[in-house]
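[Automated response] Your request has been received and processed.

Submitted sequence:
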Amino acid sequence: MTRVLAVGDLHGRLGMLEELILRHLDVDFVLQAGDFGAYRDDGACCGIPPRRRHWSEFPAYLDGSRRFPKPVFFVKGNHEHFRLLDDATAASGKSGPVPIADNLFLIPNGRVVEICGLVIAGLGGNYSMACHRRPRGGLRRRHFSDAEITAILRHPEKVDILLTHDVGEGMIPSFRGLSQELLDLGRRLKPTWWIHGHFHCHHEDDLGFTKVVGLDAIHGRETSSKILEF
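Generated structure:
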């Protein structure tokens, strides 16, 4: 049996993730659904609203002074240091997860990877109608694109887990204006699990045979994580 710890938004509170992993050392690896907090300051450079800013613990993991006890794989959120992640992806020259620090890996948008025998598709960032078909640079890199969705759909293998930051239209009744394209991706891909974050609220639903789980932010809440078993 493979056990996976899925975790919602961190916003730089990486020590809380480390504590959570220490309570679940029987898992094989961790999946994190974006807004990881991959930045070196309080988030001002990432365009994070002042009311949500606080200092990220990311630098301590980046320089090796701290290390996660289990491998952690994340997709980008809409609040990250996008150039740092883009540079790491370009430097890796690989098709799998991108090493960011010891035991910490990024799953770039549109990439399908295999971890411990499980096939995982990653699509980070949030939806923007303006940027969906015409991706832009700078802070606009927080949005996913139609080309990245197409890249996932081209993968020939059955996907076990779809890991996204945002979620599709209609999946959370209280939110409108979400992505129909992301909903269509889930329907066509038919993963066993679809894990997402972004909304800082917990919900679970079914999309056909797919179990959709939205995870809360990690601020000490039990609803910020879920154990997946295969």
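Summary generated for your ticket: The helical segments are 14-22, 58-62, 82-92, 146-153, 180-189. The mean pLDDT is 89.
If you did not submit this request, please reply to this message.
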